[in-house]
Design brief:
Elements (H helix, E strand, L loop, with lengths): L1 E2 L17 H21 L3 E5 L3 E7 L8 E6 L2 E15 L4 E15 L10 E5 L2 E7 L15
Antiparallel strand pairs: 1-6, 2-3, 3-8, 4-5, 5-6, 7-8
Amino acid sequence: MTLVKFNSDKNNSQRGLVPSFNNVFDSIFTDSFFTGRDMALLPAVNICETADHFQIELAAPGLAKEDFKVNLEHKMLTISVAKELSNQEEGKNFSRKEFNYSSFTRSFTLPDSADDNGIEAKYNNGILHVEIPKREEAKMVARQISIS
């Protein structure tokens, strides 16, 4: 199973041994500030393979199962969340309205050994569990081999 990654170091191919003046500012503002912030917004993912299935665990506390969308298209499993919260207060001489949007998308390329029809997902205690069974012919079979 392959995790589809984004390229956070887009200036890497332009950097030599000694960075130019512009690349110093790019590395300070782009690499340190924005990349760190983007990485914090993506939930952590564990991917596990056993003899008969693959399992994806995605840590996303504070959400409800209705907030998730899990889609499968052309061997690409996509997990996404888009949530909008608004807070509105009114006082004597003021009015305040705040919006909070949170969203993310994680995509995984399924191997040929995955059984697309048997995928199951459940959300429990802040973790989304996605179980992807393997096809019968792809399951690891253990057997004793006799020595002659």
